[in-house]
Amino acid sequence: MARRALLIASQIGMLSGCHKDLDIMSELLGKRGFSITRIQEGEATRAGIIAAYEDLIATTVADDTVVIHYSGHGEQSPISGHQYILPTDFAESTNTDFRGITAVELSILLARLTQKTTNATVILDCCRAAHMSRDPDVVPRARATPSTLDVAGHIDRLPPDVWPKDLPDPVSNGNAVRLVACAPHESAYETQTQDGDWAGALTEALEFTLRSQGNTPVSWLTLVARIRRRVSYRPASQRPEAEGPSRRLLFDIAEETVRGLLVTTVGRDRGSVRLEGGRILGVAAGDRFAILPASAVGPGDTPPLDTATVTAVGATDALAALENEAALPAGARAHLIATARRPHAVAVRAGSGPGDAGWAEKVRTRIGATSLLQLVEPDDDETLATVEAVDGTIGLRDAIGPLVAPRAAADSAAGWVVDNLVQLEQVATVRELESGGGAEALPDAYVVEWGRVTAAGVAVPLAADGAVIAPGDRTYVRLHNHSARDLYYSVFSLDAAGAITLLSTASPAGERVVPGGTHTLGVGPAGTLQGMEMVWPPVAPPDAPRPESFLVVVTPQPLSLAFLEQQGVRRGRGEEVPPELSPLQQVFSQAVSGGVRGAVPLPGPTPYAVHHLGYLLHPQPVPPTPARARSPLVDERPEWSVRMTDARPGAVPRLVVRVDAVTTSRTWVEALAVAGGPGGEPVGQVRSLAAADLAGTALYDGPVDGFVDLGVWLSDDRTAPDLLALRPDPDPDLSGRPAAAVAADAWIAAADAAFDEAEGAYRTTLVAVDGFGLGTHRVEGVGFALTYTVSEEPVA
């Protein structure tokens, strides 16, 4: 029974953490007895990856344990919707020689592998959607502009004797656990580790969690919950998931059995016990356990020998106090009967100024007085926020930056900052709420939709996570009820400053939606769609994007959840939830109060579903789109936020965007390329020439700071205005990258509007966070095709 691991890194574009991922996984798996096959750089081509996978299949026999880990870019074709990974030679792709590896091909390889062994694990630290990150030092593992190559044609051309498409896909393959970095609509990111290296957020969190787990046997389902919380503390908006047979123990086919935690030792006074299971199993201080004989299946199977409450928690074990100090037999096990709210970690850092250490200690004392927060060291990067007592001030920051302006150190400031920590903790806890399971699962058919409202009152739907919203934007939330009974939904805003606000105030117990009906939050009194205006939290400095979300709760009956709002009196943690609340209200009340919730199903459960609609609130408003005479035949620009994202610091490269071939019935081509320049000043270059002479022409050749915005127009004669003279004046309210991006967009829009006869053919933006799209691009529109190459060349 051999243990084998195939580790693949495709470190292309702006990625720089893929090789570090392989270092991490080589060490982790090597210590667990795996023999490692590692391919990267020139070996990680399409042919090299497939050959290594084929070797793995050939050498695998029954009962072997196999792991495949991929680190790199993922992408989805905007034309066919097919997903694929990008090997290191992907830039050499053509429509007849696709160098990516599609999800179809990966599924077939995995199916063939699991025909040899039933113990396979696939870890994918990549994604297929590029959104803006929370931090300029976090890079998405998807390109900003997906390729327009003919992926569907490539799949159709696969020889069926080599690539049989009737094998199980990953979803139905019950012999492989799949640990994925994010949901299909999200981005996966790489971020900076404590030692200064770059690594995938998933791989880094997996390393941390496995090290803290030690030898405790846990399932992938349990492990991913810990991974998910650690990733949530990093400046990367993604939700890792464990798919397939996720109740399997790590790298095993045996599944986790819920038989309680083993009671390993008893204190000398018989008043305390040690439980074999700690943070890695989700145990928290305040949890209550029934102590049962080893033969018992669970609570209710037999009267408990005693009841224990957890008083201290380590990574792999916990200390609990016995209520009756009963004598316990060997092999007794602790079964969870009530859960306490999991505290979020916070840190306090003292500066070197006079009095800083004293004020830091006062803040620590106040934090210790609330069990909603867990105090950790300042260098612990798994923290919700950090208090800074520096130079006679007390401030608060998170992984993104300052949350509020610091105040002069005083007793009132110490209390103020801890109150803010509690608010942030409550928002973080509410963001972790999940839909009901089992008898509490909502079976009804419905759709939750949300999006942006245009100035004309048109709804533009957005993805459930990853959208970028700016102050002044208007949004809506909508529920379509496809079930046979009434449904009710409540909507809350969870903002970056820790506020929880009920938005569906007209119906505090939930907006009613009749069978077959639709209700929209954001409709004005006259029945027109107006939307809800987005605002920047008044206390947060507008210096970086901030993650926020809408919380949508759906139930089959009216249910008031107004107590989730941050305003009002808070109950202290550990207090029992008031009995006047319904069982479902108790579930949500515990989320904000920290009260104890029973783990055994409550009588008469109410089904419910929870939806989190996440977005980044960007301090810079998205500029209005100027009126254009026409839309381009092909528009490949990434979303606005990506165009304003700063790349990692480094030298400004010289880029050349050169035309390889063009096909058009028109005779003349006009092009305007605008690049980011120093100090937010855009730099433009114009090309105007006959279509027959376009091949070999550089549409742009020069230094680039952040992006190149490109517009191409076609006409039958040379009638172009002076495009360089159309350069707009800078926006006095903007600076740096946003200023250059806004100016570039306005410049090309002005050029487009100035043409009388020319037809807008092509628009794109090459961005630094995507490695400027180095390689060959082919675009096709109606009666138009263009092939061009982006290269980085020595500075002239």
From TrEMBL:
Residues 3-243 form the Peptidase C14 caspase domain. One of its GO terms (molecular function) is cysteine-type endopeptidase activity. One of its GO terms (cellular component) is cytoplasm. PROSITE patterns: PROKAR_LIPOPROTEIN. Pfam families: Peptidase_C14. InterPro entries: Caspase-like_dom_sf, Metacaspase, Pept_C14_caspase. GO terms for biological process: proteolysis. This is Caspase domain-containing protein. It comes from Cryptosporangium aurantiacum.
